[in-house]
Amino acid sequence: MTEPQEPGRSRGTILLVLTIIVVSGFTLVQSIPKTYAPEDLRVRVAVIDSGVNVDRELGSRIVAERSFINASLGYSTTDNSTADSAPGGTTHGTYIARIITRNAPNAAIVNAKVISSSNTASIEAIVEAIQWAVDEQNCSVINLSLGMSRVYSGDSVGEAVRWAFQRGVSVVAAAGNSGQDGAGTSSVESPALYPEVIAVAAVDELYAPYPFSSLGPMRDRTVKPDIAASGRFQDNGRTVFGTSFAAPLVSAGAVTIIAHCLENGWKWTPGMVKAALMASALKLPLEEWQIGVGVLDVSTALEFVDFANKRDGLPLIAALTPQSSPFSFERWFVNHTSDVVVSVFCSSSEAFNLYYRGSAVEWVRGPDQISINQTGSFQLVVRVVSSTALNDLDLTLTLAATNYSSIGVELGFDVVVAYKEVAFDFSHTAWSIDSVYGQFRQLYRTLTKAAIAVDELNEPSDISLQTLSQYDAVYVFDPCARAFVMNDYVVEPSDLFDYTPEELNAYYNYWSNGGSLLLVGMSNSSIDQESANDLFSMFNITLRDDRVPAISIVVDGIPSTEAVYQLANHPVTRWIDTIDYNGCSLNVSGDAVELAWAQIFWRDENGTIQSENRALIAGLEKPNGARLVVTGSNFWLDNWALSGRYVSSENIKLVLQTTYWLLHLL
Questions:
Q1: What whole-number distance in Å separates Cα of residue 161 and Cα of residue 444?
Q2: Which of 177, 384, 515, 624 is buried deepest, with most CB atoms within 10 A?
Q3: How far is CA 308 from the centre of its chain?
């Protein structure tokens, strides 16, 4: 599945799409809410959302209001009203405010309206709302039940939440609703993906993650989300679902902790609040990349605060993630390197000493001491050097700092001997979902279950003949993918990647020496085909500037594909009836053979409809054993294809037969 295309624009400003709201029921019967009499509104919470409708319940809780929906901030019209704009017919911001006030008696609501009735918000407005909430309204907590896809650089919203955190504000954000029933890994959105932000997943009443809840881990293996809460809210006969409604429960928890500290004359920091919420979360038999460290448990969090050692009145609490590794879908191999990124959160600037013990100590490299200023991370490098498989290896890593309770990570794993070795080359794509943790997680799992070791090549500097020659095959994904960068609140695609002559020579020499390559291109709307074709053309194959299918419809977040039935009698495609395709076709010449093709229609300059068969997958081999497969689509290789979410159930056969042919097993 491709990274989302260039976002829609309004007056030159990119618009954020609100975290999806799913409405399960609605009734016209309205009940009069009871009046809540707050005891002490000492903690201000900024609800940066669609506005809030003031009624008897919320009227006494709202202490400041402002609309940022203004033409000067990128909207098509100006709306000075602070009432709920009800995007999609749902009073989204009002629901967020209700959840916070009903769960935190000390919460005073600061209503910052940024989401219009069309369910969009300008980046500039969100940034200004954050600054207003901190500088002018003295908010202690900011709730952001909204999000957008990650940009490669210049994320102004990310910079704003980091700025707020540095000024002592706890920032809570919805993780997003792009989990796609487990297929959408690495889908946690901005700003929730930043370490300063508490990213909230959604669970049901049985503590099972909702299928829509966005998932980690991120491309660099950082664990997100951080914590989970109920993603279901009922009000006046209407029920809504989404991580939007889980986030304010955590915001209410943050308010409760802050109010508790104020009542006891203690200090607090956003790092302490995040650590307390995570350390006290109810642990579940689920993985942290699914729901974070566990489910929100505010009463236990208060106990952590009460019993923590205090330094100058500041409770000293620390937490980390992941608490165990490897992930269930990972398989580690002897003589291959695996990395574990550990994120640490604590009350203040601290030095932690690290202590290692267990049977895997000699195979794990990591720091002996780290410095963390409320949030930070470090890396463990696992490499078992052995000629045979080893089972039941374990490592306990303990982090200790003065006056803190110790925290730790547990590693328990086997390592196996690789039958073959493959590199996934992501060196020329900036897409956050391009990794073994993102849209190619199922592909990684499929290969490693077959005892094929998979390493990632993530930097252009990795592309050398010496590095490539370590592998039996190299899979090159989404080369020269267009990166989205933000400048002056505008997100635009940028062609940041191209191939140097040295890199091109490395690929060609690797193949000429008998190596195997899989080149996975996409349409010109997704990648810079001109630069990518510098690589493809060395093998007498190029990507065409067309679209297959010509029109793709997105349903429930999944783009439609073309079912391809025309497949050659070749080891790669033999015994397969149909595959899924969404991308571009290929120009094929020389000794390369067409393995799959489709009839393409277009209208010429005279308006006459023309058609021809165009190649979609091609293969090439040399007498010395060099093999090559080229395709203009990654859709038959991604998580959705391999979990049967498209049309064909045979994409997995194509993946395996392609792999076995490239590895000379077919």
A1: 34
A2: 177
A3: 33
In this predicted model, what pLDDT tens digit does every residue of 201-210 receive, in sequence order? 999 999 999 9
In the predicted structure, residue 12 carries a pLDDT above the cut 80: no
Q: With CA atoms as reference, report the closest residue to 216 among 179, 168, 266.
A: 179
- When the pLDDT of each residue in the chain is averaged and rounded to a whole number, the result is 93
CATH number of 324-416: 2.60.40.10
- State mean pLDDT over 613-635: 97
Q: Which of 3-17, 91-105, 165-179, 622-636 has the lowest mean pLDDT?
A: 3-17
């642990």: which residue's tokens? 283
pLDDT tens digit sequence for 557-569: 889 999 999 999 9
CB 641 within 8 A of CB 649: no
Confidence of residue 1 (pLDDT cuts 50, 70, 90): very low
Q: Give residue 91's pLDDT.
A: 97
Which amino acid is residue 340, in one-letter code? Answer: V
CB within 8 Å of 645: residues ≥ 6 apart: 180, 183, 558, 639
**Peptide bond before 549: cis, by omega within 30 degrees of 0?**
yes
Say if residues 515 and 626 touch (Cβ distance below 8 Å). Answer: yes
Ranges of beta strands (E only) in 478-574 are 483-487, 490-494, 516-520, 541-543, 554-555, 558-559, 562-564, 566-567
Report the pLDDT value the prediction gives residue 29, as an integer from 0 to 100. 28
Contacts 24+ apart (CB under 8 A), 455-462: 455/336, 455/337, 455/421, 455/422, 455/423, 455/424, 456/423, 456/424, 456/426, 457/423, 457/424, 457/425, 457/426, 457/427, 458/426, 458/427, 459/427, 460/427, 460/428, 460/497, 460/500, 460/503, 462/425, 462/427
Which CATH fold would you assign to the domain 39-314?
Rossmann fold (3.40.50)
Q: Within 10 Å of residue 179's Cβ, how many Cβ atoms?
A: 24
Q: For residue 500, count other CB atoms closer than 10 A to its CB.
A: 11
Token pair for 172: 């809570």
pLDDT at 373 over 60: yes
Return the CATH fold of 420-662: Rossmann fold (3.40.50)
* Residue 470, token pair as written in the block: 């370590």
- Asked if 93 and 47 count as a contact pair (C-beta separation under 8 A), the reply is yes
* Topology match between the domains 39-314 and 324-416: no
Say if pTM beats, i.e. exceeds, 0.90: yes
Tally of CB atoms within 10 A around 314: 17
Q: Which of 467, 501, 498, 478 is nearest to 426 (CA)?
A: 478
Alpha carbon 298 to its chain's center: 26
β-strand partners of 271: none
Which residues are paired to 410 by β-bridges?
Answer: 324, 396
Domain assignments of the chain as residue spans, ordered by start:
39-314, 324-416, 420-662
Residue 199 vs residues 138, 148, 579: alpha-carbon distances, Å: 22, 13, 37
Contact 403/309 with Cβ under 8 angstroms?
Answer: yes
Helix residue ranges per DSSP H, 346-471? 441-449, 465-468
